[in-house]
Amino acid sequence: MTEITGNDRISEKTFVALGLFDGIHSGHRLILSQTFLDKELAPAVFTFRTESVRFKHGKPLEYICTNASKLEQMDAMGIKYAYSPDFDDVRELSGEEFVRDVLCGKMNAGAVVCGENFRFGKNAACGAEELEAFGKKYGFKVTVVRLSEDAFSSEKYRAMLREGRVDELYCGGNAYILSSQVVHGNRIGRTLDFPTINQHFAEGQLVPEHGVYHTHTLVGGKVYDSVTNVGVKPTVGENIKPLAETHIIGFSGDLYGSFVDVEFCRFIRGEKKFASLEELKKQISADIACVREQAEICR
User: 2-145 in CATH: which number?
Assistant: First the structure.
């Protein structure tokens, strides 16, 4: 996938999907899939750099996945071009300036698609109706995807993550994946004979319900069952920033500095402060045994 930056302009005609796409779920994939319907147009996406959007619908935004992660997923879908500027770089453009300078001038749009709630232009002044009018004026086709009330949405996704309902996401084809760099931790896991990888959540990124999860970790093209603790590790420290700590079953190796995908498939138990490290060690053994027993169910 080619990321458009600076003064770049796409030379071929494109079919552009519009949206924040902060978590690539089934609703987003429905919109993105429209860009492949016209074989004479190259599939493209206009989105904002996720981390630059601080508010959505007047409320602070806790985004689901980072910009790098969502672009990686779009690339895997086959999107050819993506333009993801900071929100502040385009927020002052009027609706018509956005259409003229960005969609037509920069992205060379022959067609665009958006959800029915998509807003654009300064102060979110324009919506689907205005986009259709601009399409007629500037010569591109507009498709508006209208979803039913019970359709999957980012708000539903966020609510389910906050409640730890990752099994429903996993079984429904919307598995939550944490894609983050492995960083150094306090190495407590190694002293307990359960080495782990540590991954931070980005600033502003939604942190799922604190607790222990059955996960799948992708390393070197192979998927391993794993046990992931999301939280602040109350047994071993204080004032720890929430992070994901994963023990990869059957794997031995150094992953520091690597970007690793951890897919969440089942909530096991809530986070708990143990009286001693020995008690914690026993519980980790039980969590691993639970994952081993349920591994086939979560495949």
Answer: 3.40.50.620
